[in-house]
Amino acid sequence: MYDRVYNFSSGPAVMPEPVLEKASKEMLNYRGIGMSVMEMSHRSKAYDEIIKGAEALLRSLMNIPDDYAVLFLQGGASLQFDMIPMNLAKGEGRTGKVDIVMTGMWTKRALNELKKLAVPHIVASSEDKTFTYIPSLEAGMFDPEADYVHVCWNNTIYGTRYPELPPCERPIVADMSSCILSEPVDVTKFGCIFAGAQKNLGPAGLTIVIIRKDLMEGAPDDLPTMLDFRTHASNGSLYNTPPTYAIYMCSLVLEWLRDNGGVEAIARVNRRKADTFYKFLDASRMFRPTVTGTSRSIMNIPFVTGDNVLDAEFIAAAESAGFKNLKGHRSVGGMRASIYNAMPEEGVQKLVEFMDSFEKKHV
Ligand SMILES: Cc1ncc(COP(=O)(O)O)c(C=O)c1O
């Protein structure tokens, strides 16, 4: 009806169609108030209900206990590479110890910031094989004195995800930008979970931080106000003007998820979508997945033909057939299909059929 394409972008990414429809209906007059959410004061009663409702829904969908704060921030997941060490790495003069597992570009970026704000220790790395796997981790590899352990739970660019919790004693800080709400996680096993919204939560401009309150409370007292988690926690994320419209869109995405059975239900759909894709890739004579075994992501699936010219031909043919944004990240090349919560199963099936027919024409 709307002539929409299948958008396999890694982010900003596809949004659920019912969410876009609802937002468009509420654009000019939000629920009888006579203005758009964009035009509303963030101190108004109507907006208070939106932001509180979003937090309550996220808490219920992810079973977030009361001893965790939920913050709606700006600055992207990238700002968390600074805010988290500023708040959580202890020690005088930036001497706090932080463990980090290197699994790709987003942990490299986090490491760069850690070098400025703490004393990082690389626990393990998968760089030897272009980050195509999650390194196997043992308890003895971690520093028992680290303030926390930084991991990227789902590596958007390389298509890997942690198959299990790292065996460490210290609090785990997980970048879940590209997998939040894609399958159940036990929040109590983490010290902090953060995510940019633009993949599974809503539009860009909003970052969610879920943090154990006791960790946040131990932050140094001289932090800049806006970079102190306590500022945002004690003001219900309303210390200054939050990204009001992005939070509203996020609340609609959360409602959509709740109405479709919640995280367990979407996880079943996500596994089916990923299985369909990997099954095809594993059997294909033309396309090859770059990740094998238990490290495979169910959100981002990179694949190659092994021939750059053929890759480019495939991407162009797919674009013309309505399958958009399949080009791999500029640092790895090839192709990548990002199949977030909002990508319908039908989109994955149709892409696989298209790949099959492309293969038959070329092999
Ligand atoms: C896993 C992961 N972490 C961090 C980022 C950076 O997020 P932002 O652009 O919101 O700063 C991204 C962006 O794609 C990502 O995929």
Indicate the topology.
Layout: E1 6-7, H1 17-25, H2 45-62, E2 68-73, H3 76-88, E3 97-102, H4 105-117, E4 119-125, E5 148-152, E6 154-155, E7 160-161, E8 172-175, E9 192-196, E10 207-212, H5 213-217, H6 229-233, H7 244-259, H8 262-283, E11 288-289, E12 300-304, H9 308-320, E13 323-324, E14 335-338, H10 345-362
Parallel strand pairs: 1-13, 3-4, 3-5, 5-8, 8-9
Antiparallel strand pairs: 2-10, 6-7, 9-10, 11-12, 12-14
Helix pairs in contact: 1-7, 2-7, 3-4, 8-10
Brief descriptors of the model:
alpha/beta; Aspartate Aminotransferase, domain 2; three-stranded antiparallel β-sheet; 2 domains; 10 helices
Describe it.
- The structure is a single chain.
- The chain has 363 residues and is α/β, with parallel strands linked by helices.
- The protein folds into 2 domains: 18-259, 3-Layer(aba) Sandwich (Aspartate Aminotransferase, domain 2); 261-362, Aspartate Aminotransferase, domain 1, CATH 3.90.1150.
- It is 36% helix and 16% strand.
- The chain is built from 10 helices and 14 strands.
- It has helices at residues 17-25, 45-62, 76-88, 105-117, 213-217, 229-233, 244-259, 262-283, 308-320, 345-362, and strands at 6-7, 68-73, 97-102, 119-125, 148-152, 154-155, 160-161, 172-175, 192-196, 207-212, 288-289, 300-304, 323-324, 335-338.
- A 7-stranded mixed β-sheet has the order 2-10-9-8-5-3-4. A 3-stranded antiparallel β-sheet has the order 11-12-14.
- A hairpin with a 4-residue loop joins β6 and β7.
- α1 (17-25) packs across α7 (244-259), α2 crosses α7 and α8 runs parallel beside α10.
- The relative contact order is 0.16.
